[in-house]
Amino acid sequence: MTVQLVEPDTPARPKLPPLVRMIVRRLLSASVVLLIVTVVVFAFIHAAPGGPEQAIAGREATPEQLEAIREANHLNDPLWQQYARYAVSLAHLDLGTSYTRNEPVATSIATAAGVTLPLLLATWVLSTILGAMLGLFTARRQGSRADRAVVGFTVVGASSPVFATGILVSYIFGVRLGWLPTLGVGDGGLDTVRHLALPVLTTTVVLLASTTRFARVRFGQVLDEDQVTFARARGLSSQYIVRTIVLKNSAVQMITLAGAVLVAMTGGLVVVEQVYGLPGIGTLLITGITMRDIPIVQGVTLVVAVLVVLINLVVDVLCFVVDPRLRKGLETEA
Amino acid sequence: MTGADTLLVERLPRPRRSLWRPKVPIAVVISLVFLAVAVLCVCAPFIAPHDPSFINPAESFRGPSAEHLLGTDQLGRDIVSRIIAGARTAVLAPLLLAAGTVLISTALAVLAGYAGGRVDGVIGRVNDVLYSIPSLTVAIVVVGVTGGGFALSICVLMIFALPANIRLLRAAVLERVHLPYIEAARTLGVSTPRILVTQLVPAISPLIVTSFFLQVTFAIVELSSLSFLGLGVPPGSPDWGRMLAENRSALSSNVWATAGPGLCLVALAVSANLIGDWLYTKYEQAGRSR
């Protein structure tokens, strides 16, 4: 057995600050992600049987009309040319024009985002903050009756499909009690708030299960650490322990969790919007798929993918800023 | 010294409940029973009281009766029979998906963890990229535009389920790669595939089993979400997720047409989750006491 000493490599050129290097590396991998998503969606949508011409022209269209539509939308060109054209228009920040809605894809997405974004933000804030609070509450009294009740809820909540929870919630509060509307988005203002209440409740309940569970485990780990015992021995208040030790030590995990919740919602809200008949991004995607509206489907998936990539980047940067140990780690690693 | 210790121990609060605690939690027992019933439904669809696709418009949305225990749906089909028939896709597909995911991720994780270096790097990079793709959205698009196909939805969801599992299992492999018995096997000249299969995989097998059950839960939730959206399973087939979508409009005339399959879905997912959790806790405790 030989002891190997690795020579520390001398940097040939002045190195960029670690944060910048990390962001550059992340952006590189992000572009790979976006490339894969666009190519996969493009390939499947064009390889799939049934083109968009039928949806545009209607049932009575003659073969000549269908052919004209295919020709007008360049659907007869070789696939790589179509992808190249798509990529060029993307480079001009142009998502194209919807086949069936007669408006730019960007406009459709912006309109739909007006429904989805409030839903997304409200659910995100509620489920993350309530989850952290419940997690802390239960982590501090593990094994108690309250803790076991909450854990039971998280198991059931986390393994219920969101549409099942949604149907239950809308049945109880919408149909049985008749407190809140269960369909559509209302006509703006307070009415919209009322219409969004049940979708927000549904998604929050489902996500709360995961966030509580995660927060409880992490807070529990920190509370088990020697530093907490030592702080207790020094007679520091539990308020101090929670604020300075527990929260600081779990900040990275909680930021990651908040990001993961957002990412999970990009898929989950598609289902929630179907349950409550909301004209949001998810509904736009589903109708786009059934109508074979290629630009819409491509546009929505791209926007969602960009969103996810951005979320991941922000999460990484935040963790990096919050935790000096990570910064140190990056410096020694590189 | 010892005296002081005992004093301290005596002053500690005693555990409140000294009642007899079963070795296996009751919830897990119930879960196992439910899984067994579900598997029975898969193996013996003929226990269904009616033909699950027998249409009788005269009996549309009837409430529960002696003839139809959970009533009927819009086309007068028996809900109980459809639930039993639906167990096939509801149980088999998640099991298949989970088995595939766990198998592939074990292979890749063991490879990455044992080989290290470039192999590990490549698998890690690909993993990172896959991990940051919005999986359900892409799955919806891919399954939706190709006109469904249950096998395709299983494959797509499987690919997206890989990264998390590979990460988990790889970490477990890394903990063991440098243990003396692996090194001993290598010194004795045991071939690499043999070391992987006979030494490493058994060492992480508790974790493999655990992630299998947790994967089943995810698979149940995601697959049923796809069928709720009308993707994946063909129309008319007795799938629990699809039944919820079809029957929810008639909640007032027959609640059970929706509640029945919904409860089965949740119970199935919860069962798999509880069993997985229980195994995981056992595995963790075993690790700690070592």
TrEMBL record, chain B:
UniProt topology in membrane: Multi-pass membrane protein
Name of the protein in its database record: ABC transporter permease
GO BP: transmembrane transport
Residue spans crossing the bilayer: 24-48, 91-116, 136-162, 212-235, 255-280
Keyword Chaperone: no
Record's subcellular location: Cell membrane
Keywords, comma-separated and alphabetical: Cell membrane, Membrane, Transmembrane, Transmembrane helix, Transport
Coiled coil (UniProt feature): none
Gene3D superfamilies assigned: MetI-like (1.10.3720.10)
Species for this entry: Acrocarpospora macrocephala
Family: Belongs to the binding-protein-dependent transport system permease family.
Entry-linked InterPro entries: BP-dependent_transpt_permease, MetI-like, MetI-like_sf
Main location: membrane
CDD domains cross-referenced by the UniProt entry: TM_PBP2 (cd06261)
Domain ABC transmembrane type-1 as annotated: residue spans: 91-276
CC annotations in GO: plasma membrane
